[in-house]
Amino acid sequence: MFFHIILERNMQLHPRHFGRNLRDNLVAKLMKDVEGTCSGRHGFVVAITGIENIGKGLIRDGTGFVTFPVKYQCVVFRPFKGEILEAVVTMVNKMGFFAEAGPVQIFVSNHLIPDDMEFQSGDMPNYTTSDGSVKIQKDSEVRLKIIGTRVDATEIFCIGTIKDDFLGVINDPATA
Amino acid sequence: MTLVTDSPVHSSSSEDFASFLDTHLTSTASDSSANEDSDGEEDLESKRVKRHKVEVLDIPENTHEPTTGAGTSKIEDICAHPGTFGNMCILCGQRIDEDSSVSLGYIHKGLRLANEEIVRLRNADTKNLLSRKRLYLILDLDHTLLNSTLLFHMNSEEEYLKSRADSLQDIENGNLFMLEHMRMMTKLRPYVRQFLKEASQLFEMYIYTMGDRPYAREMAKLLDPRNEYFNAKVISRDDGTQKHQKGLDVVLGQESAVLILDDTENAWIKHKDNVILMERYHFFASSCQQFGFSCKSLSELKSDESETDGALAAVLRVLKRAHSLFFDELGDSLPNRDVREVLKTVRKEILQGCKIVFSRVFPTSFPAESHQLWKMAEQLGATCLVELDDSVTHVVATDPKTEKSRWAVKEKKFLVHPQWIEATFYLWKRLPEDNYSVNQL
Ligand SMILES: [Mg+2]
Ligand SMILES: [Zn+2]
Question: What is the stated purpose of this protein (chain B) (predicted)?
């Protein structure tokens, strides 16, 4: 799920960045530091959309660096239990398959793949229905349901299932 | 100047937001699944019964599979937790920190499976593989498929190699590579490309090395630049379950269908019968030194092992023979066949028809039948005799002047040194007797 939220961060800036471009420099550094990283329980910061407020700078003893508290608006992505996600399959094996939704790694075990889909090994391992009409392989796009998430400071892991109505392949790379 | 990293501030408002989401979303999720339950209870029950019928045939222990996965707490309670990904159960999604399962990090970071689950997968996978007329083949890297050296271990006589390294842009057509970022040079064993190509038709192949993961991955790239053979089947010492030992516990194949190529038998204490021991490939001087050889290395001699008559070509013949015996000539039903027995049969074909008499090779009081050489000769399919008779084909001796040795010369029988038996045993082929004549050695 995506959220538009306000986060806060203390930014340290070298004195050489001071002057009339101070604000631009602060924002540029903030984007570089924050976008694409996983921010604890909030999830992945996708993009900074605006600056709420930049507080008064505090000079650090001895270094000349100044710390500014910056409040910023951003879009974050964080999966939740029960959420339906679309993801791209990255690896298929006899245990199930791995998929990615942006930076989130999802594993769908073969226990949670419908019973009528069977694993086929070979050069392009896949799960296929007995009539061959539906196939999950590397680069397939699937719709899955999250049944567990673990959000770390730097990574998000998910357990998914496609054993439910309206879940499974939404785009087959072979026929696309 | 030191760089100071920014410290994120956990403002109270954003923390509140995260916890609000956590509680709100969890409660709605369980709400909705509770509704589902009451709506479709009958349905759920019948589905479960149906699935039960199907699964009882092959996976009897697997009776508590959840139908929706999410939220239904009853199912979580009885989940067997067959494995974890990122410390969450792959079946119920529950957080599991205490974990006695086996790490399968070589397949994917963060993946672990419980023992019973590995056994279940192994059985299913082996069945599937056998139906495709394939067996498992586990390949060691160093001294088996290739030889590597650190650059600073290379001596002046090997210096010329550095300008002869093949391009990393065209790995498929090279066999000598300079890996500057690892400060290493690697030489692939002659015939290895043809070997992998042909073996991949008969076997599902794994790499299993005592090297670390970055090294294993790098070597896999050199051996398999198109990623046709070893996809997610590269096991390094970082993935094993025991120090200094290689084991089949992380391999998803049954022992009875696994063959192993390795130059170090002691790495496989529990699986000796699966191992085909390889003659060591020493290309670089540092490698010879490490094993205590004082002779010139192949690199110093600007020479190499034979392409068509080297160890890999020889072992490929053994593998092909074992494969064809296993699938085409055994009478048992597939699941009852054992490749370890097949390997013994292949070995027995090597000296079939040979009748061997030993002359003063064993100490006089030593029971001949329990001597290593006697046993080797028998495992190679030869018949060992104590007394000479007309049917004898070989006399094995170290001294050309014994009575039996002289008889052999007179009767135009082979007179060979005991090393002929050892070499034949380890190289899996009957070696020319002339190279092991007793006078020469
Ligand atoms: Mg080795
Ligand atoms: Zn579980």
Answer: This promotes the activity of RNA polymerase II.
Radius of gyration of chain A (CA): 22
Same structural domain, B167 and B288: yes
Spatial CB neighbours of A17, under 8 Å, sequence gap ≥ 6? A25, A26, A29
Residues B113 and B256 placed together within one structural domain of the fold: no
CB distance from A11 to chain B under 8 Å?
Answer: yes
3-class SS of residue A63: coil
One domain, residues B316 and B357: no
How far, in Å, is the centroid of ligand 2 from the Cα of B79?
4
> How many residues appear in chain B?
441
- Chain A residues in contact with B68 by the CB 8 A cut-off are 161, 163-164
pLDDT surpassing 70 at residue B349 = yes
Summarised one tens digit per residue, pLDDT across range A70-103 is 999 999 999 999 999 999 999 999 899 999 998 8
Could you tell me how far CA B181 lies from the centroid of its own chain?
27
Task: Tell me how far apart the alpha carbons of residues B23 and B279 are, in angstroms, rounded to a whole number.
Answer: 63
User: Which residues of chain B does A80 touch, with a Cβ-Cβ cutoff of 8 Å?
Assistant: 21, 25-26, 29
User: Complex ipTM, two decimals?
Assistant: 0.84
As a whole number of angstroms, the distance between CA B438 and CA B419 comes to 10
Distance (angstroms) between ligand 1 centre and the Cα of B189 equals 12
Q: How many Å apart are CA A47 and CA B188, to the nearest integer? A: 47
B193 burial level (CB within 10 Å; 0-12, 13-18, 19+): middle
